[in-house]
């Protein structure tokens, strides 16, 4: 087996993608923040002292996707052509889904996962004063398209 992220000396390296063709790439990730039903209602009513939770989480998720290569050591800096997050309320939490797009030589799975992670952490930060029992869970890749390895669609979502 050839290790892609190690050089001949066994030290970490960023994979060389210069010979890969540009393709359209899309990744979708999902996760959730579980919380008390009263916290969900306060977010819906925009009655959180720090402000509009979902608006701030939306911006944070976009920023997280854009900064992924600065957070994850072996990620390439990418030109993202689109980043969007959607939020769905449940009785006991919020489901967060990100979609990240690019046309390039490497995929955007890490950017999509980072967007969900940062949005989740932002929700936690904005609501922690009223609900210390929140749990961030289930962050996973749902779908990815493009690239040499082909498409991936998670069977159970």
TrEMBL record:
Pathway: Cofactor biosynthesis; molybdopterin biosynthesis. Substrate binds at residues 74-76, 110-111. It comes from the Bacteria. GO terms for molecular function: cyclic pyranopterin monophosphate synthase activity. Pfam families: MoaC. The active site is at 125. Residues 14-147 form the Molybdopterin cofactor biosynthesis C (MoaC) domain. Its EC number is 4.6.1.17. It catalyses: (8S)-3',8-cyclo-7,8-dihydroguanosine 5'-triphosphate = cyclic pyranopterin phosphate + diphosphate. GO terms for biological process: Mo-molybdopterin cofactor biosynthetic process. Keywords: Lyase, Molybdenum cofactor biosynthesis. Catalyzes the conversion of (8S)-3',8-cyclo-7,8-dihydroguanosine 5'-triphosphate to cyclic pyranopterin monophosphate (cPMP). Belongs to the MoaC family. Homohexamer; trimer of dimers. This is Cyclic pyranopterin monophosphate synthase. It comes from Natranaerovirga hydrolytica. The gene is moaC.
């Amino acid at each position: 087996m050839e290790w892609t992220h190690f050089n001949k000396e066994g030290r970490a390296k960023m994979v060389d993608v210069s010979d890969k063709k540009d393709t359209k790439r899309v990744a979708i990730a999902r996760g959730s923040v579980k919380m008390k039903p009263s916290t969900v209602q306060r977010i819906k009513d925009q009655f959180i002292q720090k402000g509009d939770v979902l608006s701030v989480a939306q911006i944070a998720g976009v920023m997280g996707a854009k900064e992924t290569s600065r957070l994850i050591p072996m990620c390439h800096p990418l030109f993202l052509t689109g980043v969007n997050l959607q939020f769905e309320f449940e009785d006991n939490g919020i489901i967060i889904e990100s979609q990240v797009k690019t046309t390039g030589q490497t995929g955007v799975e890490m950017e999509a996962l980072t967007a969900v992670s940062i949005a989740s952490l932002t929700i936690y930060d904005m609501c922690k004063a009223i609900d210390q029992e929140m749990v961030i869970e289930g962050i996973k890749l749902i779908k990815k398209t493009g690239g040499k390895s082909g498409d991936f669609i998670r069977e159970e979502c």
